[in-house]
């Protein structure tokens, strides 16, 4: 079943209405995830799950801010999956896709025990955007490349984005 990302993007934009920074963030993560997944040759079903997860990966920020007055990654991982599940169910995503997307949303700030290429790529795509948005220094970016990045396409994107030596 080919999943349509347009309705999911629109629903996330409505959910994040007025939060331009968060909307821009998820759109950039989605773009990098799509690029890396395609370059890595993910099977179509895994690519769709990756893209859906990239779109909703930070859906837990709003409830985390309301509940804990923090957008910390640990809180996002707790609060995000139930909200993502509701949104994906409303959009009639298949149950198997919903389960994997919620798994990824609930772990996108956990960098040990990465159990699939979709998970690895989501982490890399989020780092690509966060490193830029947080104006991370080059020395730290090189450390992240060594410790986090595993895909050839993700490493290439990181090197190109920040003009790092190969």
Question: Quick recap of the structure?
Answer:
This protein is an all-alpha fold. Helices cover 72% and strands 0% of the residues. It has one domain (5-162): Hypothetical protein af1432, CATH 1.10.3210.10.
Structural write-up:
The chain has 166 residues and is mainly alpha-helical. The protein has one domain: Hypothetical protein af1432 (Orthogonal Bundle), CATH 1.10.3210.10. 72% of the residues lie in helices and 0% in strands. It is built from nine helices and no strands.
**What percentage of residues falls in helices of 4 or more residues?**
over 70%
Mind telling me which CATH architecture this is?
A: Orthogonal Bundle
Strand content: under 5%
The ordered string of helix (H) and strand (E) elements is HHHHHHHHH
- Could you say which structural class the secondary elements and strand pairing correspond to? mainly alpha
What's the number of domains? Answer: 1
CATH C-level name = Mainly Alpha
Inertia-based shape: globular
Discrete helix count = 9
Mean pLDDT level:
95
In whole angstroms, how far apart are the ends?
38 Å
Low-confidence stretches are none
CATH superfamily: Hypothetical protein af1432
Give the number of DSSP strands.
Answer: 0
In angstroms, what is the radius of gyration? 15 Å
């Amino acid at each position: 079943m080919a999943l349509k990302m347009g309705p999911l993007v629109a629903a996330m934009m409505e959910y994040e209405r007025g939060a331009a920074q968060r909307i821009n963030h998820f759109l950039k993560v989605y773009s990098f995830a799509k690029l890396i997944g395609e370059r890595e040759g993910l099977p179509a079903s895994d690519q769709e799950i990756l893209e859906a997860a990239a779109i909703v990966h930070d859906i837990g920020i709003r409830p985390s801010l309301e509940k804990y007055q923090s957008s910390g990654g640990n809180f996002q991982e707790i609060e995000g999956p139930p909200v993502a599940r509701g949104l994906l169910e409303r959009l009639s995503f298949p149950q198997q896709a919903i389960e994997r997307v919620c798994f990824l949303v609930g772990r996108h700030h956990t960098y040990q025990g990465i159990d699939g290429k979709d998970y690895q790529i989501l982490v890399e795509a989020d780092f690509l955007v966060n490193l830029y948005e947080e104006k991370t220094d080059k020395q730290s970016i090189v450390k992240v490349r060594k410790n986090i990045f595993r895909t050839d396409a993700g490493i290439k994107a990181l090197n190109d984005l920040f003009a790092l030596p190969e």
